[in-house]
Fold:
Amino acid sequence: MIFSNMKQTFNNQSGFVTGAVVTSIVFGLLALVFGSVMIWALVNYNDQKNNVDQKILAAQEVAINKQKAKDQDAFEEKEKNPLAEFVGPTDLGRVNFKYPKTWSVYVASDGASGNNYQAYLHPGAVPQAGTKNKFALQVSIVGQSYDQVLGTYSGKVKQGDLRSSAITANGFNGQRFDGKFTDDVDGSVAVFKIRDKTLILKTDSTAFKPDFDDKVIKTLSFDQ
Structure:
């Protein structure tokens, strides 16, 4: 009887120990899994946080650069004022218009002795005249008739390289061409009849189109 009770007690204790061991193992595994999950979550959080921080820094840098570019544009636009005045030869119609004071003027040919008039305008120093140099503005007064000058652009218009449109500047009617004049030149030209000659105003780049439109063309006048 005593032996039987001792055996029962031992079995109970063994079952208790076994249950405790199993429970410990289960809790240990759960703790290990939970710890792994926590570590994974922490690593993932740090990665996401770093990515977010990098994106924030990148967005801030983009915003700063945009503001700098905006401020620079505003500064350059302010520096253009007050506008300077261009006045051509009286015997060639006294072509007159306003242009940014940050531009320089170089008269390559004054139109004397029946020659064509040619002037170049550009920010800072005027580049040397050449096929590869682009100018903010070219002013030409040529002996060709108005129709002859328009004809020089007709081929490009038919090809679709240039767009042709009528233009009126302060009551002076003319023709305008916009688009690619050559592989390197994408700009605008305005052509006006001036007495027995033809006035050609040209910008070699779309970068100067706002000044070409809002300053030069908008203030253009000449004696007919």
Q: What stands out?
A: Residues 2-79 form the longest helix (78 residues).
